[in-house]
Amino acid sequence: MKDIKTLINKIVKFRDERDWGQFHNSKDLALALSVEASELLELFLWKKNEDFNVDKLKDELADVLMYALLLADKNNLDIHQIVLDKIKKNAEKYPVDKAKGNATKYNEL
Known about the structure:
Order of helices and strands: HHHHH
CATH superfamily of the largest domain: MazG-like
Shape: globular
Number of strands: 0
CATH topology of the largest domain: Helix Hairpins
Radius of gyration: 17 Å
Strand content: under 5%
Number of domains: 2
Structural class: mainly alpha
CATH architecture of the largest domain: Orthogonal Bundle
Largest sheet: none
Distance between the termini: 35 Å
C-alpha cells in the first residue's frame, strides 16, 4: 500500500499550485465533501444495486476521498490513527457474537 502522506502531499501540491488553499477552511471542505458524496450517490439513483458506470464511480469516489484527506490534513489529523480508533470503537459497539451477519444498529443488538 502506498503511503497516505505522499498522496496527501500530491493533493495539497495540486491545490496550492492553483492558490485554492484560501478557500479550504474546515467548514467548506466538509460541505464540499458532502456535495461530492451526493454526486457519488447520484450514480446509483433509480438503478439496480450494481448497475453503475465504474469510471464515474472512480471519479466521484476520488473527489470524496480527496476532500476527506484535505479536511483531515487541515486539522492535523493522523488518518491511520483515526481509522484505527474508529475500528476499535465500532468493535466495542458491535461485538462479533451479537453483530455477525446482523445489520441491526448497535443500540438494538
